Fold this protein.
Amino acid sequence: PEYRRVVVRLLNDRQKLEKDIRVRVRAPVERAEILSPDHLSETTPSVRTHDKSWEISIPELQTYDLLAIYLKAKGESAQAIP
């Protein structure tokens, strides 16, 4: 809580490269970061607002990733992130 961060574990049991995975969050997201032991070409997630939630798009998932979601502090503007 002190870092306003939520960590989500993503696990792909099929071992087939998955693309364009989406995670929806019902709190204002400041930024997201992927931490992966896999050697992937695309590791930068995109964040955008969708209705009253924020959607994080993960470009690729091979086996295992951690998705760190940093939330905005209360009182910060809840504008869309480009």
